[in-house]
Known about the structure:
By secondary structure, this protein is α+β, with helices and mostly antiparallel strands. It has helices spanning 7-14, 21-27, 39-43, 147-161, and strands at 18-20, 57-62, 74-83, 90-97, 108-111, 123-126, 130-134, 138-144.
Amino acid sequence: MKEELSDFLKIAYKYGRVKDLEEAFEEFPVEEEWHKGKVENVLNEYSEKYDYYSIGDIVFVSVYLYPDGKMGSNHLFVIIDRDNTAIPIEYIGMILSSQIEKIKFKSNKLIKKDNKNNLNKDSIVKTDIVYKLNDKQILFKVGEIEKDKIEEYKKSFYDTLKGNNQ
């Protein structure tokens, strides 16, 4: 039996704020991130592969894998929801970026590196768009964020929809 979408996802879909993953890589090119899209740069940090990821997990996501085994565009995301109506489950994430100068936009929220999130640098979470991630695109978990922060990011998302976060 299929589950229904969460209220958050219903609103995100209604306002056209759920994007395919490829669009994230266009807006935040990996070449401009601290890890430069290289898995080995992130693997120096804590990382684990899971069969199932939780809301609040920070994950390293790849768009695709070349036939020769090289990785395509890679980026960090925080999982903020799951679409349990899809088979297999799709995760819904917000992109993390080390382009800290973009904090000037109200929809971008600062996330300071710590031992729980295992980030290499202070970063931002872009909260005005969410992206669909499937489990095959997630390479591994890097760390996690407290649930109250996820609620803060969702509130920022709603504020953006209402025009309060421009």
